[in-house]
Automatic annotation (TrEMBL), chain A:
Membrane topology (UniProt): Multi-pass membrane protein
Function recorded in the entry: Involved in the maintenance of the Golgi structure. May play a role in hematopoiesis.
Subcellular location: Cell membrane; Cytoplasm; Golgi apparatus, cis-Golgi network membrane
Biological source species: Branchiostoma floridae
Keyword Magnesium on entry: no
Record region (Disordered): 40-59
Entry-linked InterPro entries: tRNA_Mod/Golgi_Maint (IPR051521)
Protein name as annotated: Protein YIPF3
Transmembrane segments: 131-149, 161-184, 196-218, 224-244, 256-277
Alphabetically ordered keywords of this record: Cell membrane, Cytoplasm, Differentiation, Glycoprotein, Golgi apparatus, Membrane, Transmembrane, Transmembrane helix
PANTHER family found in the cross-reference section: NATURAL KILLER CELL-SPECIFIC ANTIGEN KLIP1, PROTEIN YIPF3
GO biological process: cell differentiation
UniProtKB/TrEMBL annotation, chain B:
Organism expressing this protein natively: Branchiostoma floridae (Florida lancelet)
Its membrane topology: Multi-pass membrane protein
Protein family: Belongs to the YIP1 family.
GO biological process, one term: endoplasmic reticulum to Golgi vesicle-mediated transport
Protein name, entry field: Protein YIPF
Length: 361, 225
């Protein structure tokens, strides 16, 4: 009967089911259920039922208060434990920590050795599996690309340029690594995914160097300097990667497929970066080479910039459908710099010719 | 078990089942300490002034990083970085066409915050001792010299109609100074938290971060109005 025990003795577990039956009340009723006290009993029953209605909520409230509090604490503890576990599993920064465990000297050495292919292909060449170097190189490449874009003239859509640079660089690094790892998996190459990532990332040093030098020492009107650098730096880093893959793959066809893909992607990406975001001031430079009197104005003062390249055109003036239409719109612009340039073109006697060709289209 | 009649009312007597009480833990510090930390009842002006003073103190520390104070690290806050970031983004906003305005603010804002997060993650992965928000706080506050350089640049751009090479040189030197100051200040605060032989690895991302911001400032020379 005494489902309800004195909490100070015995267990603290309260059996709610028996309480809800009002078991404790039965005794009162049974004691009082004799003849003349029947009415009293009923009254008492009603009274007790009334009091039990009042007492039960009090009791229930009190018990659920204490019990509820305990339960709430339990739920909170379990929930936070589970959340911590999930967080530790998925967002744990410690997973990446081993890949950042490098010394500055090692990073420098690896950067320099990107251009030093190792000719040993009979035994698998050692490949670093580190992510610090490639990550910094990719960020540097993004910065160089921005420098490239900025110095290629009047840029209207800076937001698009930054996002494009970010997307292009990280997309190339991760996309090419994924593709090469997939091909390596098919071709039975003994290389890990993180090593492919690291290798591709380090090879981007060539891109940084070539693009930076190409923009900083831009030689007008000829791409020969760029092609030379492309062959030297791009070639060396490509050969380095190719030899690593050769040393880790067996079978002629597999070697050919893997190394061919790697070399093609690497070199073509460099070409793409140069020509897509290239300094198109060279068009204007060619135009203005006809000038007799030198006028000192910086490149940024040259307002109307035209290009036949679709990417650059869209970048400069998204409303432009074709280059000459863009020039026409720009020619009507009221900006000071464009007025200056138009004036210079008029002095050169070129503007009339340009207008004629514009209107004829 | 004794067949005692248990009255329901006994229950309420035996077990204190009040729904009110206090939430202090027995053995906790007494009430007076709690009142000191409770800032809910103070006037809003006091709260704002206190926060402003903290931000101002941190600005002074950034401008003078050699003073050696570590309050920038201990009590981090993100109000200062937010104010600086919004100011820099607003000033760098292009003001020619309406459609170029929005991306530029968002671009600068995103670059500043994402850049700070990336640099922080990098320093943590290299074994740094600072917490995430401490690093973000320091990096954000150290944008102050660059934002001052940006204000000077804007004044120069607005002051004269034609931009000569001399003015460009002044702007370039100002931004270069701001960049050097920012990088030096950030290194002064964050350098000690890195292992000694890996300081260079932590410096480079900070250098790149402030370099990109400086580049955005110096290349914002086209005032097309």
């Amino acid at each position: 009967m005494a489902a309800f025990q004195n909490p100070s003795e015995g267990s603290a577990v309260i059996d709610m089911s028996t309480l809800e039956d009002g078991a404790g009340l039965d005794d009162d009723i049974s004691i009082a259920s004799s003849g003349e006290e029947f009415v009293d009993v009923r009254k008492r029953e009603r009274a007790t039922s009334d009091t039990s209605d009042e007492g039960d909520p009090n009791l229930a409230k009190g018990l659920t208060g204490a019990l509820g509090q305990t339960m709430a604490e339990q739920v909170w503890k379990t929930g936070s434990q589970q959340a911590k576990k999930a967080f530790n599993l998925y967002a744990n920064i410690d997973i990446l920590r081993p890949y950042f465990d490098v010394e500055p000297r090692k990073v420098m050495k690896r950067l320099l050795h990107t251009f030093v292919p190792s000719r040993v292909i009979s035994i698998p060449q050692k490949v670093a599996s580190e992510l610090y170097g490639p990550l910094m190189i990719v960020f540097t490449l993004i910065a160089v690309l921005l420098y490239n874009m900025k110095s290629s003239g009047h840029t209207v859509r800076e937001g698009t340029l930054m996002g494009t640079a970010f997307f292009v660089c990280f997309g190339y690094w991760w996309g090419t690594s994924a593709l090469l790892y997939f091909i390596a998996y098919i071709c039975n190459t003994h290389i890990a995914a993180i090593q492919v990532l690291s290798l591709t990332g380090y090879a981007l040093v060539a891109h940084c160097v070539v693009l930076f030098l190409g923009t900083a020492f831009h030689s007008v009107g000829s791409h020969s300097m760029f092609y030379l650098m492309w062959a030297v730096f791009g070639g060396l880093s490509t050969i380095k990667m190719v030899l690593v893959y050769l040393s880790r793959t067996s079978g002629q066809t597999q070697r050919l497929v893997l190394t061919g893909t790697c070399a093609a992607l690497h070199l073509l990406f460099l070409l793409y970066l140069h020509f897509a975001y290239h300094n198109i001031v060279e068009d204007l430079d060619q135009t203005l080479q006809l000038r007799v009197a030198p006028v000192s104005f910086s490149r940024h003062d040259l307002g109307p910039v035209r290009s036949t390249h679709p990417v650059i055109r869209r970048v400069i003036d998204p409303r432009a459908v074709d280059p000459m239409a863009g020039a026409q719109e720009v020619g009507k612009s009221k900006t000071r710099m464009e007025r200056d340039t138009n004036q210079q073109l008029v002095e050169l006697g070129l503007k009339d010719g340009l207008d004629k060709s514009v209107h004829s289209m | 078990m004794a067949a005692t009649s248990v009255d329901v009312s006994d229950v309420t007597d035996q077990v204190p089942l009040d729904v009110e009480g206090d939430i202090t833990v027995p053995g906790a510090p007494p009430e007076e300490d709690e009142d000191d930390f409770s800032t809910l009842d103070e006037p809003v002006k006091d709260t704002i002034l206190r926060d402003l003073k903290a931000v101002g103190k941190k600005f002074v520390h950034v401008l003078n990083p050699l003073k050696g104070s570590r309050s920038l690290l201990r009590e981090w806050d993100l109000w200062g970085p937010l104010v600086l970031c919004v100011m820099v983004a607003l000033l760098l906003q292009g003001d020619n066409a309406a459609d170029t305005g929005a991306p530029q603010f968002a671009e600068v804002f995103v670059i500043l915050w994402v850049g700070a997060v990336v640099v922080t993650l990098n320093s943590q992965l290299l074994g740094g001792q600072l917490s995430f928000f401490q690093s973000v706080c320091v990096l954000g506050y150290c944008v102050l010299p660059l934002s001052m350089a940006l204000i000077v640049c804007r004044i120069i751009l607005a002051a004269s109609a034609t931009q000569t090479i001399v003015l460009f040189a002044i702007r370039f030197v100002t931004v270069l100074l701001g960049f050097a100051w920012s990088t030096f200040a950030a290194m002064a605060f964050l350098g000690d938290s890195q292992p000694v032989n890996r300081k260079a690895l932590a410096v480079y991302p900070i250098f790149l971060f402030y370099f990109i911001i400086s580049w955005m400032i110096i290349s914002h020379t086209h005032s097309d109005t």
